[in-house]
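> tool_call: predict_assembly(chains=four)
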Amino acid sequence: MKQLRYGMVGGGPGAFIGDVHRKTIRIDNLALLSAGCFSRDAEKSRSFGKELGLPSERVYTDFAMMAKEEAKRKDGIQFVVCVTPNVSHYEVCKAFLAEGISVVCDKPLTWTIEQSEALVALAKKKDLLFGVTYTYSGYPAVKQMRHMVESGALGAIKFVNGEYPQGWLAAPIDEESKLAPWRMDPKVAGISNCLGDIGSHIENLVATVTGLKIESVCARLDRIVEGRTLDDNASVMVEYKGGAKGLYWSSQIAQGNDNALRIRIYGEKGGLEWSQEDPDHFTFTPNAGPQQKWSRGRDEFCEEAQKYSRIPAGHPEGLFEAFANIYKSFILALGKKLSGEALQSSDIDFPTVEMGLDGVVFINKCVESNDKGSVWVTL
Amino acid sequence: MKQLRYGMVGGGPGAFIGDVHRKTIRIDNLALLSAGCFSRDAEKSRSFGKELGLPSERVYTDFAMMAKEEAKRKDGIQFVVCVTPNVSHYEVCKAFLAEGISVVCDKPLTWTIEQSEALVALAKKKDLLFGVTYTYSGYPAVKQMRHMVESGALGAIKFVNGEYPQGWLAAPIDEESKLAPWRMDPKVAGISNCLGDIGSHIENLVATVTGLKIESVCARLDRIVEGRTLDDNASVMVEYKGGAKGLYWSSQIAQGNDNALRIRIYGEKGGLEWSQEDPDHFTFTPNAGPQQKWSRGRDEFCEEAQKYSRIPAGHPEGLFEAFANIYKSFILALGKKLSGEALQSSDIDFPTVEMGLDGVVFINKCVESNDKGSVWVTL
Amino acid sequence: MKQLRYGMVGGGPGAFIGDVHRKTIRIDNLALLSAGCFSRDAEKSRSFGKELGLPSERVYTDFAMMAKEEAKRKDGIQFVVCVTPNVSHYEVCKAFLAEGISVVCDKPLTWTIEQSEALVALAKKKDLLFGVTYTYSGYPAVKQMRHMVESGALGAIKFVNGEYPQGWLAAPIDEESKLAPWRMDPKVAGISNCLGDIGSHIENLVATVTGLKIESVCARLDRIVEGRTLDDNASVMVEYKGGAKGLYWSSQIAQGNDNALRIRIYGEKGGLEWSQEDPDHFTFTPNAGPQQKWSRGRDEFCEEAQKYSRIPAGHPEGLFEAFANIYKSFILALGKKLSGEALQSSDIDFPTVEMGLDGVVFINKCVESNDKGSVWVTL
Amino acid sequence: MKQLRYGMVGGGPGAFIGDVHRKTIRIDNLALLSAGCFSRDAEKSRSFGKELGLPSERVYTDFAMMAKEEAKRKDGIQFVVCVTPNVSHYEVCKAFLAEGISVVCDKPLTWTIEQSEALVALAKKKDLLFGVTYTYSGYPAVKQMRHMVESGALGAIKFVNGEYPQGWLAAPIDEESKLAPWRMDPKVAGISNCLGDIGSHIENLVATVTGLKIESVCARLDRIVEGRTLDDNASVMVEYKGGAKGLYWSSQIAQGNDNALRIRIYGEKGGLEWSQEDPDHFTFTPNAGPQQKWSRGRDEFCEEAQKYSRIPAGHPEGLFEAFANIYKSFILALGKKLSGEALQSSDIDFPTVEMGLDGVVFINKCVESNDKGSVWVTL
């Protein structure tokens, strides 16, 4: 396949996550950065674009103009990566979709449910691909677990325990006020900090592996460290359509945890457990027989998980590789589509805009539950 | 100290837990089995008592008569161990307390809150010692963690995550009907199976380590395997007096877990984590600096934890030793009391009847919450 | 079976290991302490025996007299437990064997090969049982691994890695001179400290699980901390009869390890790994398929391992229980023998005097190898 | 810094390791692939070079010509990456050094000691940079451990245990004869398979972290699976200059291990332990106090380790990132050098050609020791 061309909105000098997107796309090199709008500050955007090797005419300071101009070019970008602050995801994505350009956007997709619904509808109407970078879904072990659930190795799923404890906000931050602007100020961060930022990864990961749809939630969002205006700890009881149950916990005050996303999935025939900090392994325990430790790259892995392994078992793959897998799947699907081939459902092996919408609904409904006194709210 | 004399009610031939009580008392040998009422079947009780080396006149078939007769003897028992099915704990304990005999009883203490309150009142009125065998509180690591909380190493406790997953009831049991009589029949097992049997250990363990008192709960009790009449999985959101929060999960359908009781405690200054399946170790992570792995028997352990270590670090101590520690503390306190010495609060280093009551309140209020639709209920 | 009667030589007030023997025998209560020679100091022995509840006429100050007197009594002891310093094992064991009394002795059995050979011959001639308390062989997981090797699950064993690192002697001991008398003084500790004390456990554990016999060794014994007169670290390359190879490492200066005995066994069809600090579990990895984590008490365990489990999976059993298992097997075999029944080879499920001899040969040959410049020495 | 230009020799279509080099260089994008000689087959080399986006005049079929041509160009490559089979490393590296082009070469550097010595001398004479891709030295945790040793946190190092077990060759390979050509055929693989391929990583990793130099070795190289012509398992006793001791074990028949490189380092003041399969963490246990678990990205890491972290603690970095770190350091140093700045010793933060030579000496001396009957051989 020929390398595709992509553009980026956001991700200017010093922006952590924009750099990660560029680095991880380069690993497989299936797409080339060809245009960008890295900052609203014209000088910043221009000099950064130059540093990245872009011709000056393809470095923009206005994302709307970028969408328009790139759509006109014969060698225009084939997809855009949106890594702006959450608050502007909606406008950016809408602008590119409107011009017929496919999109990859950071999560959470938007602030409001309505905005996400609009993006889902627009992407569908325009027949464009739209990926949302729920990073952790890219790990081969996650794909293997999904395969085991789909193929019936666990029977019907009955209970899920998802947790995502971090400890980095356990103590008051010296510059809590500085941290605030985008973490703790509702005008920037939206309606939730902890649940919105990391709790939503649990929601997506469980949905990815099990396919379960949430029916209702009972949520408690805590502001543990005094003075915080948004949650730094969150507990959610979940009911899924069809009767399965779940329990989610996310936290930024759980000292002793770096980034300890973990899911445990229990079905009629056995249980699965996976921890993001040891991403190459998971355990599967059937109802009869000893616990099994599965290891990425060993022969047991199915083809659809194995194809994302770049190195043999025991040679650790990390977050960058998971990220690169999302792009690999997205770009290969887009390339196929652009070449006129029909996409199979198995080609869409990345988190979609519909999943992005599900995440936004989850966050909003949990906040609603909490605000009403931690009562049950139907999605 | 001279060996004390104890009696046992329940724990006849084939009874698992009665045998554990006798074995673990023998480890330190601070008390000698001197009387028993092992079964309502006279022949069974007699032959079993003989096997245990008891003189026939001290083997009873009626616990009330045993209480009366032993109270009269000069060499009568100084405490009784009650290991009957939960349903009869109340009557047995009451009978011995009434005769002035101290008691050790299995958990949960009773079915109803009123019964437990009555036992608390009676023990107090009679000035007797009353221990409840919440096994896991006996581990030296638990005592060390309690010390660290008490001494302020964690600052104020803010959030607690307690879980107790097991997998042995994940599949329908062949003789589900056989299992029922004491597991799943409300007439025998009481109002809860999973939460009552193992969830209550979380409640006690958290209380032991942190001293936190529960103010309200929001609980969901699930019957995951079809046809069960009582819960086999339970989630509880907890609010403590003073503002701390908690989240408890217990399960018997979590395949891949044998007996994985675990608590994680987060305070202003750091976090603790302990797993019952690796009882000699826990981690402490201060807000600054790397995570610390503490190991029973090493010099870091405080005196009040160290005194329960029987063998050096790295030589595993297990459940029997934890059990023996409860008896060690109970018997030493009782011996001191019987010898006329005044007890210090530090002498009462075992789960008390008041803790037994707290456990019964917790179970009852969780069931109430669940029955009302998983709403918040104040304790 | 009726409780047997046993005596003890050594294990007086303050003696750690003697107390462990008594405690662990009491767990199953299959034998009753009936006589003892706890100290050469008559007063000490007498008062300690009284404390243990022995009649004064059965408390001795001379082990030879004890052997003679007990052999004469109708209710004399049926076996003796020798827990004296290593230097006197030989004389004590010989005295009791000579009087027809079975023996359990601590390891290492004796100092010299000749002494051990003499005990093997005498036990055989007198047709007596003789157990050596290599503690770690008592764990149910060890018995399960032995079963898996015997039943061919691993195919022929090809390579073994055994290690036993401890860290407690990493720093010079303040009272290194005090420690010396029995640790570091060749007149008391014998020819080796680290290899003799803990390295010998590797040798026994590997022999127990695999049945392999050592043909030759190349050993290096290090005195890492300056001023030590005996080894505190030891490496041994091993060749087994039949062509398998091994590598053993024991250390007391490996800071970060409490008591980390571990064996890894590799056969044609798969590998086993077990760590003493997590004694209830081991892993088995067949050549095809994922790694399996076996857990004591689960249904996969074979009958001959399962019978030593006292509590369900996930309820930790520790060193005391392993110790008790050695006594359980020894006492049941002795009871059967004394009742006139013929013993099956499966009844001898404890480390024998022949294994004790193997251990002494191993230690002596390793020291010889080291003294010659770490060259190969045939056993 | 401006992107450098590099060329590659080897790494054609289907070549695993060449692809890894290119991918990991792209992560930081500090150098651009500008020329290559990917295969001796002209058509293969040309079409592969085209696929990689190279102009046809810079795709070669003869490495010697490539060295000459590139040296002449104004925009010629500034360093070459040699990823050919080991047998040709020497000739390739020599050719480029001779033309004044810096080199990065896979390990082991060469077959013979003489060849490696010649490369060391030539690099020095030409004043060129020469890196050897001992991958595992690139992990930030390795750099942090090195820092702790250098800064005295462990005191003098006394004993090192290094091991590298894999299990993928545990069973005879169906196409053992196919595997042979480069694994097991001495004409291709050289004098050792297991020790040469993976054992040498232990040697380099220990040297990197501790700075210790090997004085003598006693090695045993086993051919465990029948019919193999080269070793698949190796044990080495090591003596370092200055008196410290070591024990190394590498294996490809240790079923249950994927790629379990691990080092344990013991000094006067404490111990370190690191496992490659969990590369972001290591433990440090000081002589006093509990064991510490260090985690990449947390504040405890020193600046010289921290600078290689790309993502926060708990977000796993893997082998690709370690590899990228070697290139990052090499390219930054080369850029500095080419710009005329003087290099500090801290700039040379990658495995050098001298370390490559040490590795070749180690392999050759171990083979010599083994061939003489596993006797001690001085380096």
